[in-house]
Amino acid sequence: MRTVMGYLLPYRVRVACGVALKFLAAVLELELPLLLAYIIDVCVPSGDRGAIARAGLAMMALAFGGAFCNITGNRMAAWVSMEVTRRLRRDLYQKTESLSCAQLDGFSVSSLVSRLTNDTYHVHQMFDKVQRGGIRAPMLVLGGLILTFWISPPLALVQLAVCALTFFTIFAVTRRGIPRYTAAQTAVDDVVRILRENAAGVRVVKAMACQDRERERFAAANEAARRAEEDAGCVMAAANPLTGFFLNTGLVLVILVGAFRVNDGVMDAGQIVGFLSYFALIQNATLGIAKVFVMVSKGAASAHRIEAVLTAPEDQRPQEGGPAAPWELGMENASFSYLGVEKDLDGASFTLRKGETLGILGPTGSGKTTLVSLLLRLYDADGGIVWVGGRDVKSRERRELGGRFGVVFQHEALLNDSVYENISFLRGLSREAVIAAAKTAQAWEFIQTLPRGLDTQVDIRGANLSGGQRQRLLIARALAAKPGILVLDSADSALDYRTAAELRRALRRDFPGVTLVIISERVASLQDADRILVLEEGRITHQGPHETLLRDCPRYRDIARLQMGGARL
User: Fold this and answer.
1) Neighbours of 318 (CB within 10 A)
2) Which CATH architecture does the domain made up of 2-310 adopt?
3) Which segments of the chain belong to CATH 1.20.1560.10?
4) How far is CA 124 from CA 3, 8, 163, 302, 315, in A?
């Protein structure tokens, strides 16, 4: 909470001015009942119409002055809240981008989306309401109590008791409401997660006729979120009725006691009217405080969730590395586990020199993508050493390390932008460089057939392109910045064999010095690699060139025989 509140510091002068205006508005409003009592008790009995007119004009001036101060203060509060939320959302997004994959897994993407949207909105509302009503309402209550004690101490004691009960009720309700709002936000995370899953996989859901099941799953998560919000709302909803009951009861007591005191001649009629005006001011201000506390409850719960991300430690800082190694890529007894229970990669060891090609083959879940993730330092190995560029990957800056790689993952997203921007990927590359990369990736031929060529708009997730066209655009994106290390993770799975072969020839022709890492289920894509790794259940069972594996690795030989035929083999 302290971290989030710190975002107000750059605007402390404007906040102070807004607070001063709201304070002045409260003072002006508190003067009105005194003038009203003066008119009734002094001006009316004396019949001095001039005094009545002067007092009325003074009341009008106070009313206009209070309105002006309130409007100006509200505008300043709205501006500060908007700016604070903008900076908070910007920093939260930047922090989210800097989180390691392990931290992203811990928070979950759906929860981060919820924190960037719902939680920042609740914090915005909290800042806005506190600046608007957090000063004016307590000032009206405190000033009203002081003036009512000056008018009639016995009646003020009744009002003080009512205020004490009201504030105790608000405190108790808020204390029970904050944990419930935290639970409600967690339930919203599940709704966002299911919504993202269904939006991303809408084609699969429709193709497998799973709409009813997904509707039921979403309805269940939505119902859980509704119940959590209802639970929190029921607790917080008790504040207004209880405070209203206490205040109305106090009003009845004040009128009753005041009537007896006026009848006994202890109080004037104007004083009781002024007292009732103060009571109404205090009543409305107390209800305003209750609303502020509701927003503070939501905002505090959201602020804690935001602060958990903002204060997350940087867990991949560069460390002191060992001596330089003569190879470009390599591992020595590297191991890793996503959940810390069973090793997803165990004892991986290999080396690869600059300009060579590494092929990785293995069944689904054997650890192929995990191995590449360690090379990219998306995750840190639990044990062993991972080398990139002849140095321990933990000794490199993440930005500098990412600049060495061009990567095509299994599941990549395309921007809802032009073909050019999807290849340039907001890096400001020249059109010549983009065209050259598209030609190498075998994408230029189909790009020329598009209505506007490179300027053709690509739909969200490339919905207006075929699978092979999407893959070739992604390969062109990886090639456009001329990386030193190119990683292709099943990048040819949607390409026909002829196009895939032409792609391999173009890579060898146009990028002769690049270090290439290819993950593929096709032996034809790997057979020219300098070193091929065969993975099974997270372990490298065999490694070597194509001919060596044909001789020594039964699994590789069987896969090659199935794909290439015995005669060709």
Assistant:
1) 14
2) Up-down Bundle (1.20)
3) 2-310
4) 15, 11, 28, 10, 30
Closest CA to 415 of 458, 379, 474: 458
Q: In what order do the strands lie in the sheet with 357-361?
A: 405-408, 485-489, 515-519, 357-361, 531-536, 539-544
Please, where in the chain does CATH 3.40.50.300 lie? 329-564
**E strands, 227-382, in order:** 329-336, 345-352, 357-361
The full DSSP string for 139-188 is: HHHHHHHHHHHHH-HHHHHHHHHHHHHHHHHHHHHHHHHHHHHHHHHHHH
* Exposure letters 169-205 (e unless 16+ CB within 10 A, then b): bbeebbeebbebbbbbbbbbbbbbbbeeebeeeeeeb
Of the candidates 349, 264, 270, the residue with the CA atom closest to the CA atom of residue 539: 349
Q: CATH number of the domain at 329-564, please?
A: 3.40.50.300
Average pLDDT across each block of 10 residues of the chain; the chain has 569 residues. List them in order: 81 88 86 80 78 86 90 91 93 89 84 87 89 81 80 77 79 78 80 78 73 85 87 78 78 78 73 76 77 80 89 81 78 88 88 91 87 89 89 83 84 82 87 92 90 88 83 90 88 82 88 89 87 91 91 89 66
- Cβ atoms within 10 A of the Cβ of 436, count? 18
Single out the residue of 31, 30, 33 nearest to residue 272, CA to CA. Answer: 33
Classify 200 in phi/psi space as left (phi over 0), alpha (psi -120 to 50) or beta.
alpha
Integer angstrom CA distances of residue 75 from 18, 23, 27, 200, 452: 9, 15, 19, 41, 47
Q: Identify residue 151 by its one-letter amino acid code.
A: I
Burial tier of 46 (Cβ tally within 10 Å: 0-12, 13-18, 19+): exposed
Question: How big is the chain by its Cα radius of gyration, in Å?
Answer: 35
Cα separation of 95 and 566, whole Å? Answer: 54
Question: What tokens appear for 283 in the block?
Answer: 């009543």
Query: What is the residue whose two structure tokens read 């009217």?
Result: 273
Q: Exposure of 457 by Cβ count < 10 A (0-12 exposed, 13-18 middle, 19+ buried)?
A: middle
If you write DSSP's letter for every residue of 311-331 in order, what string do you get? T-----------S--SSSEEE
